[in-house]
């Protein structure tokens, strides 16, 4: 009788463990799919953002960078008028926020720690 109870208990325990593991895997997969869709949606939005209403400049003035910022823009370049400012543009969708690196870049730009560098490799030998 004891052996029968032991075998039955072990079988039930295995079944419960298998079900719990299956549920955990299913939840993990659903979460991964949800996150993947959010990332893909954000990447798509980055690509079309210059063509949406309210974008801060003409799409012809924008250059895609990708990382660590999305765009650098030169307002006026597309129309051939003098460029009076340079914009660093980060596109955020949903509840996403700036990463640590993006915040550092924002702070560097806002505090004026920006330089224009000319690099001439043939003169640096």
H and E string: HEEEH
Strand runs, count: 3
Which spans of ≥5 residues are poorly predicted at pLDDT below 50? none
| Structural class estimated from helices and strands | mainly alpha
Question: How are strands sequenced across the largest beta sheet?
Answer: 1-2-3
**Beta-strand content:** 5-15%
Largest sheet: 3 strands, antiparallel
- Amino- and carboxy-terminal Cα gap: 89 Å
Q: What is the overall number of helices?
A: 2
Write down the Rg: 27 Å
Shape summary: elongated
**Arithmetic mean pLDDT:** 85
| Portion of residues within helices | 40-55%
Overall description:
The protein is built from two helices and three strands; from the N terminus they run αβββα. With 125 residues, the chain is mainly alpha-helical. The termini are far apart. The protein has helices at residues 2-48, 100-110; strands at residues 62-64, 71-73, 87-89. The radius of gyration is 27 Å and the shape is elongated. Strand 1 (62-64) and strand 2 form a beta hairpin. The protein has a three-stranded antiparallel beta sheet with strand order 1-2-3, with no helix packed on it.
Kindly summarize this structure in a few lines.
The protein has 125 residues and is mainly alpha-helical.
Chain-wise SSE layout:
Layout: H1 2-48, E1 62-64, E2 71-73, E3 87-89, H2 100-110
Antiparallel strand pairs: 1-2, 2-3
């Amino acid at each position: 009788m004891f052996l029968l109870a032991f075998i039955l208990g072990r079988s039930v325990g295995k079944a419960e463990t298998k079900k719990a593991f299956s549920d955990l895997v299913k939840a993990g997969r659903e979460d991964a799919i949800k996150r993947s869709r959010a990332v893909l949606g954000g990447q798509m939005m980055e690509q079309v953002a210059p063509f949406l209403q309210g974008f801060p400049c003409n799409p012809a003035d924008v250059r895609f960078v990708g990382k660590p910022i999305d765009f650098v823009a030169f307002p006026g370049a597309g129309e051939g008028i003098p460029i009076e400012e340079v914009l660093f543009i980060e596109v955020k969708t949903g509840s996403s926020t700036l990463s640590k690196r993006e915040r550092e870049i924002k702070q560097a730009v806002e505090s004026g720690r920006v330089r224009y560098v000319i690099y001439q490799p043939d003169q640096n030998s």
